[in-house]
Design a protein that fits this description.
With 192 residues, the chain is α+β, with helices and mostly antiparallel strands. The protein has helices at residues 2-20, 24-90, 98-120, 182-191, and strands at 123-126, 138-146, 154-159, 161-164, 167-170, 172-179.
C-alpha cells in the first residue's frame, strides 16, 4: 500500500506540473493583459484626480468671489450711513443763501461720485414706495392706518434699501399701510 500511495502521489504531482506549465507566449499575453488592466486603472485614477482638482479649483474660485462680495457688502453698508446723512442734509438746501447753495452743489457732486462708485460695483438702491411689503427687502418701522392705500403697501421710505446683484446689503426701513377696518372707519365718521 505504501508503494501504491507513493505512485499515486507522484502521478498527481506530475499532472499538477503539467497543468502549471504555460507556454512563454501565454505567459506574455497574461502579463500584458494584467499590465493593460493596471494601466487602465491608473488612467482612471488620473482622470478622477484631475476632475477633482478642477472641481476644487472651481469651488475655491466661487468661495473667493463670495468672500469678496461679502467683504465689499460689509464695507458699503458702513458707508451707506454717511451717504444717507449727506443726502438728507442736501434735501434742506432750498432756504439757504446763494453762497451756501454753491457749497451744497459741491457736496451734491461728491454725493453723486459716491453713488456712481457704488453703481460701478453693482450696488444700487431699490425702490420701495408703492410696492407690497416684503420682509426680505423691507423692515417695517411703522404701520399707518389708512383707506387711501391697499393693505401691506409701502407708503413711505425712511431709509433706502441697497443690493448688490441679488444680495441684499441693507433692507429698506419703511412705513406700511394698514387698512382701517370697517368698524373703526364708522367710529371715525361718527366722531366727525
Amino acid at each position: 500500500m505504501k508503494k501504491e500511495d507513493k505512485n499515486k502521489e507522484a502521478e498527481e504531482s506530475i499532472e499538477e506540473k503539467d497543468e502549471k506549465i504555460i507556454s512563454p507566449t501565454e505567459l506574455i499575453q497574461e502579463q500584458l493583459m494584467q499590465r493593460s488592466k493596471e494601466a487602465t486603472e491608473y488612467k482612471d485614477k488620473y482622470f478622477r484626480a484631475l476632475a477633482e482638482m478642477e472641481n476644487v479649483k472651481k469651488r475655491l474660485m466661487q468661495e473667493k468671489k463670495e468672500l469678496i462680495a461679502y467683504s465689499v457688502g460689509n464695507f458699503v453698508e458702513e458707508l451707506l450711513g454717511p451717504i444717507d446723512n449727506l443726502e438728507n442734509a442736501l434735501g434742506y438746501t432750498d432756504n439757504l443763501s446763494d453762497e451756501m447753495k454753491n457749497w451744497a452743489v459741491g457736496f451734491k457732486m461728491i454725493l453723486d461720485q459716491f453713488k456712481n462708485a457704488l453703481e460701478s460695483n453693482g450696488i444700487a438702491a431699490y425702490e420701495s414706495i408703492g410696492k407690497p411689503f416684503d420682509p426680505n427687502f423691507h423692515e417695517a418701522v411703522e404701520l399707518i392706518e389708512t383707506n387711501d392705500h391697499e393693505d401691506g403697501v409701502i407708503i413711505e421710505e425712511l431709509m433706502k434699501g441697497y443690493r448688490q446683484d441679488k444680495r441684499i446689503i441693507r433692507v429698506a426701513k419703511v412705513k406700511v399701510a394698514k387698512k382701517i377696518s370697517s368698524k373703526e372707519s364708522k367710529k371715525e365718521e361718527q366722531n366727525k
